[in-house]
Amino acid sequence: MISRRRLTQAMTATAAAGAAGLTGAGQASALTDTAAAEARAARTPHGLGPVRHTRTDLLDIAYHDVGSADGTPVILLHGWPFSPVGSYTEVAPALARRGYRCYIPYLRGHGETRFRHQDTFRSGQQAALGTDLVAFMDALRVPRALFAGYDWGGRAGDVAAALWPERCTGLVSVNGYLIQNLAVTREPLAPSIESGYWYFFYFLTERGRKGLQRNREDLARVVWHRNSPQWHFTEAEFAQAARLWTNPDYVDVVIHSYRHRLAAAPGDPRYADLERRLLDQPRITVPTVTLDGQADGVNPATDGSGYAVHFSGPWTHHVVPDAGHNLPQEQPEAFTAAVLEADAMK
């Protein structure tokens, strides 16, 4: 169901003055977009604290944690090519003030997260991302948590919520149902959509691999501008994110992710059974809030009806004004409010 009133109420609880995030495009901000970004950059480095580490069978996962140790667990998941620090530097402290314990991991191939063994397949496939999330919870002895993310992180949350619903108390997923339907991956989409996915096809080629290896910052800058055309990020924000892309496994993981999703590369055999289950497009049964950015340059905003069938539990959808693809960084109040709403739907 779609309920703007409920999320507007949550927004009121999130920002004392009332945020512009979900109440309508006509509201004016007290600062221009650029001034707001500069104000964020001028604050203390970020509100996520030091980088911590935990180990799973395959990974040494870098992460941040924010909030009281006995707070309600929520795992905030970043996308590509974005930074968990940038995406959640405002969201996590806002949630911590409301009694949540936030865990913010770095995806495989990003930042200080490392593979523990040289012979591990550097996979970026969806089953790997979902499995990493559950393994991360196991390593930290977190039995259940709310998952919230976008892009790669949103997909990890969707996969884990669908395959292991007993571990998920609720879900916030930007751009809706993100589990890839590999059975139809060779079918074309509308040209207007395909054009936004230019880097999918670029990465199918060895030229694209070399381009990512040599020009990872320039390529990411193009993605930031095109996927979030109204987002006026600062050079400091971009430089912070760029540190993630020096990971020695970054290129292999990214290239495999996009080749696998287009059926152009085999997956890691360890995830074959999970990928077969994902071919059935499993429904997500946990309470869910889906969000679309009104200014998303790659996935146009919808009313959510196109993927409503995939959510069999409590579900609501919102379009967020002035938000692009990196929604939690561009409109942190709206993303925070969505977490509060998903938690209240239990």
UniProtKB/TrEMBL annotation:
The keyword Hydrolase applies. One of its GO terms (molecular function) is hydrolase activity. It holds the Pfam family Abhydrolase_1. Keywords: Hydrolase, Signal. Residues 73-327 form the AB hydrolase-1 domain. Residues 1-30 form the signal peptide. It comes from the Bacteria. InterPro entries: AB_hydrolase_1 (IPR000073), AB_hydrolase_sf (IPR050266), TAT_signal (IPR006311). The keyword Hydrolase applies. PANTHER family: MONOACYLGLYCEROL LIPASE. This is Alpha/beta hydrolase. It comes from Streptomyces niphimycinicus. The lineage of its organism: Bacteria, Bacillati, Actinomycetota, Actinomycetes, Kitasatosporales.
